[in-house]
Amino acid sequence: MTADLALLGWSAWLALLSLVVLAVPAVAVAWWVAQPGARAPRVVVEGLCTLPLVLPPTAVGLLLLELLAADSALGHLLARAGAEVVFTPAGVVLAGAVMGLPLLLRSARTAFEQVDGRYVAVARTLGRTRAAAFWAVELPLARRGIAAGALLAFCRALGEFGATILLAGNIPGRTQTVPLAIFQRAQAGEDASALRLVGLATAAAFGVVLAYEWLAGRGGGRARG
Amino acid sequence: MLEVDLRLPLADFPLRVKLSTGARAVALVGASGAGKTSLLEALAGLRPGTEGRVVVDGVVLQDGTRGLRPEVRGVGYVPQDLALFPHLTAGQNVAFGATPGSAGDVARWTELLGLSGLLSRKVTELSGGERQRVALARALAARPKLLLLDEPLSALDLPLRAAALKSLHQAVAASGVRLLYVTHHLAEAEFLCSEGAWLERGEVRAVGAVDQVVSAWLAAAAPAR
Question: Cβ separation of B70 and A140 shorter than 8 Å?
Answer without folding.
Answer: no
